[in-house]
Amino acid sequence: MVESRILLIESNYELRAFIKMQLELEYELIQACSGAGGVDAATKEIPDLIIADVDLPSENGLNICRRLKNDSRTKHIPIIVISGQSTLTQQLMGLNSGADLYLTKPCNIRILRSYIHNLLQMKHTWSEHFKHKKHMNVPEGMICKEQGAFLGQLKEIVEANIGNSAFTTQKLAREIGISRSVLYKRLKETSSSSPAELIKLLRLQKAAIMLLCQDKKVVEVAWEVGFNEWKYFSKEFKKHFGQSPVKFTAELRASIQATNHGLNAVNAMSIS
After folding, report:
1. Which of 115, 161, 269, 270 gets the highest tally of CB atoms within 10 A of its CB?
2. Which residues cross the membrane (predicted)?
């Protein structure tokens, strides 16, 4: 199995060394000690996930996050931002910058490891959906750059409207600048999914991340990802993930805890 590659952007040598020590047995680590170096590494290496400190020399970590999320080469990469600033306003600024998660210091290394696991699993599920979709006409690994960019653009638009239950395929077509029939045809050629299926898939993917990483009830998550009826949400979630939202979350969290069980005392140290 190929190791997932994580880019760590951290200017503090001791903290960078500590995180590296904790993660290097599970992941391939790429390191950068500045914002500029981090952007350069991200665009050249295209890692599976990025961890960035907000307090970086020359450029704020949130600006780095915005740059990477606005770059077609890196916009798909999950980003975890770590900051010493914990007010609600600052956390919202972090999430609005495009970060998938905003963690405040001190951050327990086991919590960080769990979040990494969750985000990578969601990313893998998304990739596999299109790679192994039934009746897919494009051979594995042969999706061209243009098709990949098209899917990435669609994903970005849907995610920007994820909480809007009134966001339809017609609005998606309008946002991307093509007719609904052309959107349907292009998406079918690329993935064999319809636009409606894509929107629903991305809502469910976002919901899974929220359930795993945030302490929220199923009904709250359903509403926040654009489902008006939580029972319908639960039905579609089970259809996609094979389990109800509650069971899915409980079993994955239990799996993570089992994986972490027995770690030595150093693994309980906090990132501060």
Report:
1. 115
2. none
Residue 237 CB neighbours (<10 A) = 25
Angle at 52 between CA 82 and CA 158, to 5 degrees: 90
User: 258: Cβ–Cβ under 8 A, 6 or more apart, which residues?
Assistant: none
Tokens encoding 129 = 């959906």
- Cα–Cα distances in angstroms (integers) from residue 42 to residues 9, 27, 123, in the given order: 10, 16, 17
Give per-residue pLDDT as tens, 121-165: 776 665 555 555 444 444 344 344 556 677 778 888 998 899 999
264 contacts: CB under 8 Å, gap ≥ 6: none
pLDDT in tens, 167-202: 999 999 999 999 999 999 888 776 667 899 889 988
Task: For helices 169-176 and 195-213, give the axis angle rounded to 10 degrees.
Answer: 100
Please return the burial class of 128, using the count of CB atoms within 10 Å of its CB with bins 0-12, 13-18 and 19+: exposed
